[in-house]
Specification:
By secondary structure, the protein is mainly α. The protein contains twelve helices and five strands.
Length: about 325
Amino acid sequence: MMTDSSQGYDVLGLFGLVAPERSDELAALVREYNPAFLVANDQPSFLLEASPSFGFVRYVNRALLHVWVLAWVMWKEMYCWSSELWFLAKDGKPFVLAELDALPDQAASYADAEAVYSEAMAFIQSNPLEWTLWPSQVPRPLEIAAGTQEDWVVKDFVHHALAFFFLHELRHIVLHHDGIQFESQHDEELECDRWAADFLLARSDLYAAAAAEDATKVKSKRAMGVALGTAVIAHIQELGLWEAGTQHPPIAERMKNLVSALALPGTDLSWTVACSFLLAGLRRRAVVPDRLEFQDHRDSFMKLLAAPTNWEGHPGT
């Protein structure tokens, strides 16, 4: 990934990096559809979108950097939630916000996450980009080789999140080229989500077998990257989780559709990570549930995706 360069990102190389088992299929797709990935002039808004009629995806480098810095923000937020969520689910206890807020150092954890978020937003919202504002706790992309092992984990999540975004837009191009139409734009968006996630996850066991890695762990890590991508969208847009846009369905609906096809155990760590990413956004909008009952880690994620009117203790329940 670039930093202060106007150079474009190697999107096709990214696809081969995150899902090497699909390399032959990707090569055939590129030969048939000849997609292009073009860098647009910088602008403050998050731009990463397809122009299906012309067969290209355009983006600004700032958008890629936006995903990069938000990934470290949400990873920092993990320290606010993940351990407690894991043990609550393991022990069959409910999530009670007041009890969690009362934990030692919880307020400090929130403050640490907010400090990284404030610095990240100051950098991303500068116009033109002001590199002296780069957040102090986030490694720059070109310096990641010297990062910690933990930094490398977050970097991998970013790669999968970006691949999910670009694959989603690529699907728009393929659908237009093939003349496939949907009853609504929302339906097409859900199909592009489905295809992008399928590209990353459906054959991950083939990669795991070739690399002599645990198949569940490989799929789990990739799922965390997709979860990061959808959580980034929820952070960036102004509508929150449950409101539909003019062209896109609610983020919560998109997440539920992706989860429905995800064959991971209900106790897998990816659910706790995804919950932490969700709570990062909910906390900033002051809509964290006061109390939630759940059966396992997967159920906790699904309960958080439900509209607040379905949460226990919320007015109207």
